[in-house]
Amino acid sequence: MRNLKYTIGADVSMKEIVCCLSVINDEQEVKVKATHKFPNSKTGFIRLLSWTRKQIKEELPVNFIMEATGVYHEQLAWFLYDHDKIVCILLPNKAKNWMKASGAKSKNDSIDAKGLAKIGAERKLEVWTPPSKNLLILRDCTRRHQALNEIRTVTNNQLHAILHSQFQSKIVVKQLKTTLKLIESQLQEMEDTISSIISDDPILLRHHNNITSIKGLSTLSFAVIIAETNGFALFKKVSALINYAGYDVIENQSGSHVGRTKISKKGNSRIRRVLHMPALCAVRDDQPQFKNLFIRIYDRTKIKMKAYVAIQKKLLMMVYFLWKKECSYNPNFVHTERQSTE
């Protein structure tokens, strides 16, 4: 039997990295060669490379496989990329579904690392290309903007409650008003920073001009979607993007029983949150592609929110295709196409 390639599955948490080294042979048999834990730090990364060199006995390709969970994997991914290693990053739902299908019933760091190594051995995965550093900075700025908005809402509610109570503390009112002024200034600062990042990056600026030509999609909406998806780097199909954002539909039907059909919401809530207002604007401004879809779904379900969620999903798909094809939005595209075929 001849070995074909090595794979190292890395389950990354805040403090440590659990690694599993596996090898696959020409009979498609995957064998675990070694497992080890390393601290999630630069020292741990260096030790990981040293451990890898000691364990590997043949001149074969070595792939490092990890999940895109939170931000804890990013430093390791960049370190390995800077050292010319092959890195593959999976969406969490893909890894989870594969391990379920393979019969895994338990879950811990060691099992996850072995599962990732086996996925990398048995499948040809897309090699990870680091996103633009501007996208990572943009993600931090958009998340901070959302956090500030949430703090402002809480502070406003507290101030409203005190101002309408029987007895009021002047010092509390003063502090709340001062806090609101600070939050407003920081929100403006974040918005200016987001605009500056986009305008200073020619690629981002070109995509921004194409995508924000859709009425209702603002600079902030564009920034959140692109930052949360890393410029759609991990998405080869629009269906994967829909699943990632939690817009995939879950049906509940068996025999004569017809239950409630709804979206899963098992995905990035920040994307769904930022698409709420653009969906309202798209319908209000009477844009044909969105207005017709809204009417069709509302006539069928009599539930406005279901129709608006469908518009959010369509907007996300539109952003994806405009980004991939690098073209601007044409509101009459569907109607022109239909007229030419009639």
Notes on the protein architecture:
The radius of gyration is 24 Å and the shape is globular. The strands form three sheets. It has a five-stranded mixed sheet with strand order 3-2-1-4-5. Helix 11 (276-284) crosses helix 13. 27% of the residues are buried. It starts with a strand and ends with a helix. The protein is 58% helix and 14% strand. A hairpin with a 3-residue loop joins strand 1 (3-12) and strand 2 (16-25). The protein has 14 helices and nine strands. The protein is an alpha/beta fold and 342 residues long. The chain folds into three domains: 3-122, ATPase, nucleotide binding domain (Nucleotidyltransferase, domain 5); 133-200; 223-341, no CATH class. The longest helix has 31 residues, at 133-163. Residues 8-167 form the Transposase IS110-like N-terminal domain. GO terms for molecular function: DNA binding; transposase activity.
